[in-house]
Amino acid sequence: MKKILLISSNSSSRGGGERYLVFLARGLRRLNYEVHALLSDVNYMNVWAKDLADEGATIHRRKLKGLTHRPLRFLQAMYDKKQIELISDFCNEIMPDAILVNQQYDEDGIDFLMGAIKSGVAPVGGTMHMPMTKGKNNRRLGRLRGFLLSRWYYSHYYHIIFVSKGAQKEFESYYKLPTSTFVVNNSTPLDNKIPTVQPYQIFPETSPVIGFVGQFCYQKNIMRIVKAWMEVREIIGDCRLLLVGDGPERAIIENFLINNLPSESYHITGWTEVPEIYLEQMNVFILASRFEGLPLSLVEAASRGISAVVSPFNGANDVAQYAHWVKVANHDTVEQISNLVVNVLMNKTKEPTKLELEKFRNYFSLERMAKETIQILNKGRN
Predict the structure, then answer these.
(1) Domains and CATH numbers, the chain
(2) Other CB atoms closer than 10 Å to residue 264's CB: what's the count?
């Protein structure tokens, strides 16, 4: 049995990247790999330690700093010799056959990668979800950060893996490297049984419902969803909005809805452990994010045959190419999104067949994600 070491970016208690590691661990265990996970000992990582342990991974906790705890960000990571040495020594201690770092974006995980590479015990990979290079030069010290990172990427070889072709394109349009990068589409468990506990019927069954599942934060751009829904209502009349989730922008969204719309026309569930139970009440799933890697909420909705309308973020076309019922807007505007939603609700979108849904779910399986990741880690330098 081969041994795989997963190193977390230790970003947050609800980070999508850490959830990715949990799902990857499950896929690897199904392929009979021995999985080890290295996490920080900070309290907010306890939830991920438990989740990974539940998947059968052996958990290792060390005193590690993540990027969010560094005032000078990746610069401190580059020169944190103590942490780099700690990770290198740890890799030599357990001697894995392959190492994968959850890198998140282009400035993250530099010290974790340096330690893994320095150990020299196994091939190293890093999974990048959102490169965040688009518009980098226009941000504070962006050109300087980009210049320093370009030199770092050029001189440190490892297998760079992206979760979508869009993410890969964004990265490669900014960084010019002498080696190839790879894409492994992100996956989520699609073989789980639908929870037996069902929510009460929120809206009348005769009313079409458009909805969203996720965090109420800047990235997800919930206000664009709300405004697109309002335009849809102007065109087709009765249409309800179902928002599943919570986050820092919830109060702003709620105040806007209270002041502008009748209360019976929308519903916000708040945070829930089983958001998927609300998907069945949606006629159209909307994701209007400003940026994404490959959003798992979209994969979950599409796997149930729910029509989806999404903005043209990274990963949108990666999903749409396997699901004709996922519509990608040409432009990131309220008008584009609302027009696509109207088309769907006016029965202009063909529903997927059982065979199409089965093919979709088979492709976005955890086993496929794990298998492709291992194949890339086993590749030689090119």
Answers:
(1) 3-187+365-377 (3.40.50.2000), 209-363 (3.40.50.2000)
(2) 11
